[in-house]
Amino acid sequence: MRQRAITAFFFATVMLGGIFGGEYTFLALFTLVAAGCAWELSGLVFKDEEQFVVLRRIVCAAFTTVFFVAFGGNTVDIFPNISIKVLGIIPILFGVFATFELFLAGKKPFSNIGMYLLSVFYIGIPLVLLAWIAHGEIYHPNRVLGLLLLVWTNDTGAYLTGRTFGKHKLLERISPKKTWEGTLGGAALTILMAWGLSFLIKDFTLTQWLALSVVAAIGSNIGDLVESMLKRSVGVKDTGTFLPGHGGFLDRFDAFIFCLPFYWLALQIV
Q1: Which positions ≥6 away from 99 have C-beta within 8 Å?
Q2: What is the pLDDT of residue 92?
Q3: Taking the domains of the chain in order of start, what are their residue ranges?
Q4: Within 13 A of 68's CA, how many CA atoms are on the CB side?
Q5: Which of 11, 159, 162, 164 lies in the 20 to 30 Å Cα band around 59?
């Protein structure tokens, strides 16, 4: 418990410092998140390969990180106007990964190609969307904090409500501890948090905040379950050990990353 508390304190300090330090510290923070999550994801999906596993993980993490920096960096004019070229980048990535696997002689080369691209789509693109949400004409750190708070509120509310009142399992096959009571309790608290944020952070309207809270309430749970499904499929408990007592990067950011494309979509619609 003490280790978890110490890790949580330093985690929160780094997150707040990165978010509120400015647009470049934001980019640096989530570049680290992209690299860490991709490294851990690749460790799971390439688990069955017998050779060149570390090399594959390096390539996977490097491409995901570069993708985020390239497309997220256009918000701070590091790579202006690169976003319009995304359709050309994707088949180029396929060609690079296919050539890479051609020489590594893996047991399942096309599955491996898919896993490199999975990392870009699962981690790289959602974090790019976060960078776009955070930047209007200027950088808005409160937007990032608000989106994180919705996910954290849902997770904490679901845990506390489920622990107190939980009886009916949500999806026991994947996550034995998740309950419907916890899910509904977390959703209620997330909506309440969104209502409060609408008074404190004026970047979004009340309607937008409520829409974002619905995304967080549903997406957080699905994101957790998807990552649990992945971990169960390869027989591991945590994706990594970078955060003692809390697991790895992907364990901490799975729900948030899963919500990001739907956050972006909600803001386009509402």
Answers
A1: none
A2: 81
A3: 23-138, 139-270
A4: 29
A5: 11
